[in-house]
Write a structure and sequence with these properties.
Length: 632
């Protein structure tokens, strides 16, 4: 906040607070192992409306103590965002005026569907999702969100925040000492997330931090033992005191970014998820660090794989947010899948493949300048970690999208893995893209083969001139002259999206709904016929009151159709056994309405293809057994 040891190495937030920008009206949710919302630095800002516990399936995300004294992570992240000031206790959050919610999801096995629910939970209440977790940082994992998680991220940016889009902040990862790289982390690599790395109090990349071409920016965290870590709220369960001075890792950096974004949303609530990314690119500050490979792209933005576009600066972010009008709609271009089947040579040689994106290619979408650039590759190789992939944009800007990893000896290569880079942000989209792949391994292994690749460009119809204009507009706003309450730009109204109703309907759910609908219609018709026919035949069956009522054997199809006259219950004690076996599980316990209820339960759990077999058909005997006394 105010770094006396290394002046200037801070998040530059105090001037923003002085102008009453504290995150008021914004809700940040920590998706983690729970949030102890009763500790005094959290309680006043806690949002129960935005919270949920997916591990125990209840609305209260209170962490559960465990043997390792471990589930304090979410509480620590929450404190960085919204810890209460001026209470003579512990820390103060970056956005101490914001509301803080918790989603408990990491205390147990994390499934794809849980992850998807977490990403969209209360997404009209929660504005920013702070996610300080990801795949294993062991330097040999290539992993990302699966089908549902991916769909939820996409759905969140389209429907969350009244259509302005949920903001997903993710940490770059802590596998630095294992040579890990966040381009192998599908959460960091996703275009829908804001990927945040860490620097220590001196501005250097700590030993644990991961670098990658898709990193947007960095902010502070702990470093070596001699350096200070982050002071924040802690749980007071087990050995916790409610306060810690030892929070570190990229886990500690992402929540600071989430807090700074909350400040931006207070001054301009209609910023879209892409506006936030743009403003970070436009305002993050490059600084001297001899270890960083800063490279300035054609649009004038400097990026390094270690520090992204630089340090997040709350003052610059908020001033830019205040005067920011939304970037035009997202335009994209997808190349065909380009089949290559070419060998990957050993370093220093490399395989180079090209793809030309012409004016005609971009005409339809209107794409002129770039945001994210993604490359999806399939490469076979006996040792995946020996591969090095570089992507060159038309300007010549190089991104190391696939960094070699010494520990990754996976023999399967890459199978449709998507790498992404932000390094060409703001550059023109047209021109020749070049992918260079080489094998940097030293063992004489079998040679790798580039099977196929595909290029995807994301951006907008902004021209390079529009980008330059926006850059100079923002620089003119940095004096703080617009940061008073009287200055406001009009905000478009958001969409009215009912909470959670817009959740993805999968084809299977749809099929199930159709089947349930058909069954209901069938059941109604059948029941009406049944009642009608029963009444008509009342006289003829009066005589069997004391005997067993049973259903004569008949074909499945006739029961399904339900229009046969034989479907009238008859009295025949010999057929009782047949009835029971046909009735299956519904028969034993069901009363008049039970078959329907049981079946519905089954359907919720089963695939639609199984429904017909798993769930007993409507069985007329059940329907009528309960009425023995009256009818038979
Ligand atoms: Ca709970
Ligand atoms: Ca405090
Ligand atoms: Ca990682």
């Amino acid at each position: 906040m105010n770094n006396r040891r290394s002046p200037g190495r801070d998040i530059n937030v105090t001037g923003v607070w002085e102008r009453n920008v504290t995150g008021r009206g914004v809700t940040v949710v920590v998706v983690d192992d729970g949030v102890e919302h009763t500790v005094q630095d959290i309680a006043p800002n806690y949002s129960p409306e935005g919270s949920y516990d997916l591990n125990s399936n209840d609305p209260d995300p209170m962490p559960h103590p465990d043997a390792e004294n471990g589930n304090h992570h979410g509480t620590r992240c929450a404190g960085e965002i919204a810890a209460v000031p001026n209470n003579s206790f512990c820390a103060v959050g970056v956005a101490y005026g914001s509301r803080i919610a918790g989603i408990r999801v990491l205390d147990g096995p994390l499934t794809d569907s849980m992850e998807a629910v977490a990403f969209n939970k209360h997404y009209q209440i929660n504005d920013i999702y702070s996610c300080s977790w990801g795949p294993d940082d062991d330097g040999k994992t290539v992993e990302g969100p699966h089908q549902l998680g991916k769909a939820a991220l996409q759905h969140g940016v389209m429907a969350g925040r009244q259509g302005f889009g949920s903001i997903f902040v993710v940490a770059s990862g802590n596998g630095g000492q294992h040579n890990d790289n966040c381009n192998y982390d599908g959460y960091a690599n996703s275009i829908y997330t804001v990927t945040i790395g860490a620097v220590d109090e001196e501005g250097r990349m700590p030993f644990y931090a991961e670098e990658c071409a898709s990193m947007l920016a960095v902010t502070f965290s702990g470093g070596d033992k001699m350096l200070r870590s982050i002071v924040t709220t802690d749980w007071d369960l087990q050995k916790g005191t409610g306060c810690t001075e030892g929070h570190t890792g990229t886990s500690a950096a992402a929540p600071l970014a989430a807090g700074m974004i909350a400040l931006m949303l207070q001054v301009r609530p209609c910023l879209t998820w892409r506006d936030i990314q743009h403003i970070i690119v436009f305002t993050a500050t490059q600084y001297e660090d001899h270890h960083a490979d800063w490279l300035t792209n054609e649009a004038g933005f400097s990026h390094s794989h270690q520090h992204g576009f630089g340090l997040l600066n709350a003052w610059r972010l908020v001033n830019a947010a205040k005067i920011w009008t939304s970037v035009p709609y997202l335009a994209s271009y997808v190349s065909p899948v380009i089949k290559e089947n070419k060998a990957v040579p050993r370093s220093p040689h490399s395989l180079e493949v090209l793809w030309n994106v012409s004016r005609m290619d971009l005409e339809m979408s209107g794409l002129k300048t770039l945001e994210h650039v993604a490359v999806t590759v399939s490469i076979t190789h006996p040792r995946r970690g020996s591969l090095e992939l570089k992507l060159f944009c038309p300007s010549g800007m190089m991104s190391l999208i696939g960094a070699p990893r010494s520990l990754d000896s996976d023999p399967n290569g890459f199978n449709d893995w998507t790498f992404s880079t932000v390094r060409c942000w703001g550059e023109r989209a047209r021109g020749i893209y070049r992918l260079a792949i080489r094998d940097v391994g030293d063992e004489p292994l079998q040679v790798g083969i580039l099977r196929q690749w595909q290029l995807t460009l994301y951006g907008s119809m902004w021209s390079p001139v529009d980008i330059k204009d926006r850059q100079s507009l923002l620089e003119s706003a940095m004096s703080g002259k617009y940061l008073h309450d009287n200055f406001t730009l009009p905000c478009p109204p958001g969409l009215k999206i009912p909470e959670e109703d817009g959740y993805i309907i999968t084809p299977n759910t749809l099929k199930t709904l159709v089947l349930v609908g058909c069954f209901t219609v069938f059941w109604t018709i059948y029941y009406m016929l049944e009642v009608y026919l029963s009444q008509r035949n009342m006289a003829s069956i009066q005589g069997c009151r004391s005997g067993h009522c049973a259903w004569p054997q008949q074909s499945q199809s006739s029961r399904e159709v339900g229009t046969e006259l034989e479907s009238v219950p008859l009295c025949n004690s010999k057929d009782q056994d047949g009835v029971d076996s046909e009735n299956g599980s519904c028969a034993a316990t069901s009363g008049f309405l039970a078959p329907e209820l049981l079946c519905e339960g089954d359907w919720n759990l089963s695939q639609s293809s199984k429904i017909v077999q798993d769930c007993p058909q409507f069985q007329p005997p059940d329907l009528l057994q309960g009425k023995d006394g009256q009818i038979c």
